[in-house]
# Entry
Amino acid sequence: QVQLVESGGGLVQTGGSLRLSCVASGGTSNAYAIGWFRQAPGMEREFLAAITWSGGHTFHPDSLKGRFVISKDNAKNTVYLQMNSLKPEDTAVYYCAWRAPGASDFGSWGQGTQVTVSS
# Structure
């Protein structure tokens, strides 16, 4: 199974920026895509962005693509999420996840990194 480790979270003021990192190991050559999600207390998990591992095709929901941008560095087995113009409602635990080729859903998840946006 693929192991994913997120980092880069922390405390940031409203309007600030953070770049999250997701380092993958244990089979990234078989990955179809890596995605970013977040979950706030009492809320459902929310999809943020995804990128295909080999082709670099990206998907950004319209509601977030103006502020959140996904990218990757295959040589470092790392996927990034650049977050700009952060708002208090962005406060959540952020997760990356791996989707295998042919799979209909993401199957491996990291432990998450906390992002807190204060005013």
In short: The radius of gyration is 13 Å. The chain has a mean pLDDT of 93. The longest strand covers residues 18-25.
